[in-house]
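Two proteins follow. First one:
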Amino acid sequence: MSAFPQLPAPPPLQKVMIIPARSIGTIVADVVVEEHHEDRTTITRHPVEGSTGVATISDNAVDEPSEVTLTYGWWPGSTQNSGTATITVTLPDGTPQTMTGSFSNPNFLNAVYAQLLDLRSGHVPFMVYTGRRVYANMLISMLSVTTDKDTENALIIRVVCQQLIIVTTTTFQLSQNPAQVQDPQTGLQVAQQGQQNVTATPLPSTAAFQNSLSAQAAAQFPFPGEP
């Protein structure tokens, strides 16, 4: 009996990048009509000190929050608007019969619109997945829906999402001991100098002040014939 031929080793598993569906938060779009990305930087109009190409302008250019405008669509026959249900009915002879069938929500379009309205009014940052970029910490700044003869049986909605810039702050507890407190401008420790006495010097009287000016003027500009 001949031995079985040696089969080749299976190829190694390859990593596959799974691209998420186009979605606003957890709301997945059926149709992508348009995705418009916009990033702006506000640059100072005043002159910046420095030589050409080496000027430090980090304090004179500020990146504005990213903004993306999404035009998405949904329709009643969407795969998202389908499911299965199992029901039990009783036949005329009294025998129970289990039936399984598919169903769809007749208010699917209004339900999607209501979810987007709740997402806008909830003011909770969410993720946005587009065909070009993934956005984090986004909020809806505008929703626009137009229903006409072409979109009566569909939902075409324009959503404007703006990025929310989130920063973290750190607090420090200052010491109550004056010897351990530092000057915030110099960073040097402020030492306790004890009690200081201030002595005010009295101003001369008006007559004494005028006599002093007259004596100084006579010394600098003597009359003719005087030594």
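Second one, unrelated to the first:
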Amino acid sequence: MILDRKADFSAIDSTVLDVECSKDPSLRSMIRVIGTIGPSPISPWVVLRDLPESLKQKLRNMLFEMHTDPEGAQILRHGRIARFSRVEDCDYDSIRETTGVPGFAS
């Protein structure tokens, strides 16, 4: 939308920006970063609380082992991701501090 002049500015995740610029390096000359927040943890993956625990565990295992599967590793590389790692709730404290909202991201 910025390039089409439908928006003057936007927020974008740095990983998303890196992937898009790797696809089209000319983007770097067409946009300007005017500010950053961070470093901060990547956005969390979330599921419904009422999913069966066995399915939640299966999804966790799939994500945490994805880098060991050739097809999974290729998908991760495309997104410029090495692998997924376990995090704790406290890993998101920096976002809570940045937003000033105590319950944000919990």
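SUMMARY FIELD: The two ends are 31 Å apart (CA to CA). Residues 43-106 form one domain.
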